[in-house]
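Backbone geometry:

***
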Amino acid sequence: MNLGDYDLDEYSDEEYDFKDEAMEQTIHIPPIQELNYCKSIKYILSPHLKGNTIMLEAKELEEILKHNQGQTVFKLKNPDPLKRKVMYVTVHNFNSRNNLMGISKEIYEELDMSMDERKIEITLVKLPQAKKVKFKIPEEIKNPKDVLEFTMMKHQILYEGQEIVLKVFDEKFIIKVTKTEPAKAVCILNTDLKFDVEY
């Protein structure tokens, strides 16, 4: 395991223990690992982007691959210390230009951005595999298991506080992620997701 890839001084969530037998000591590693790719990037609203997806420049891909060969998941943060808004996103493509990051309307609204705030902090992260997720769903949804299994097919990651919009004909329902284990953000790809629901 190459510990040089991780910043062990900053924890994004509760810690867990990893025992390195060669070093004969226990090392604390956060479930959400923040890798050595962190910067502030100017953004632009991209009408064709939907949900929690962003668009980066092609030159960013080479730098990202130096730090992580697997997930391309990012933590976005509103730089305003009074707002402290954070969310997790994936990359739609690397076709952006002019040193800009494309974001969706949903990202702009969830981060509570304003026209005065022209940059977003972006950090490459590695998320743990989901063990369990708890959802709060509208009472109108009578078959939650089927609805959630279908809805989750469109997502790679989940995080606490995330609101997922479910459209049924002309109606919109909000499904809220209230708890994720073992961290506050998790990857749900290639995992047998266990979940609880509340109304």
Summary: The first strand starts at residue 16 and ends at 20. The two ends are 42 Å apart (CA to CA). The chain has two domains: 3-126, 132-198. The longest helix spans residues 58-67.
